Amino acid sequence: MFRRKSEAPVVEQPTLTQGGKGRPTPTRKEQEAANKARAKAPRGRRELAQSRSASSAQAREGMRRGDERYLLPRDRGPVRRFARDWVDSRFLISETIMPVIILALVLGFVGNRELAILGQFITFVVLAVVFVTWIFVSFALTRELKRRFPGESTRGVSWYAMMRAMMLRQLRNPKPQVKVRQKLPDTYR
Length: 189
Hints:
Helix content: 40-55%
Strand content: under 5%
Largest sheet: none
Number of domains: 2
Order of helices and strands: HHHHHH
Structural class: mainly alpha
Low-confidence stretches: none
């Protein structure tokens, strides 16, 4: 019970030798080119801020135009582009939600009881309109997506389209690429 166990044979591990730095030494020409590139790079805070602001402005402009390279991951792909164009090619009453809700809030704070009740009524009507618009967008867009993009994942596209439909047309980002009542192209690949 308390006997010593037989010792396992010791396997000799090969020693790792660190021979060199893992890359060839750069030639004089390569080193001078690297030094020149470093010298041209912005050094101070002001130069760094200017280069960042220029690249940010370029990215913002690309996003406004709808350039795929600059879009956020939620906006990328042909399915999302079609959903954006589908919403932008229609006038949906849900676009007017934000100004109407602000009006209803103002009516609630005026101090007149009848206007406050009117503001609450307007709020309930707007909520009903949003619900009906959501159902319309969901069914119509889903049907169109199944027709145009068979076999592709359309998960979350209805919600994406509804959020876009509730924004004022001027505040949508990426900016609308089609006009209201414009016919959409047949392919989006």
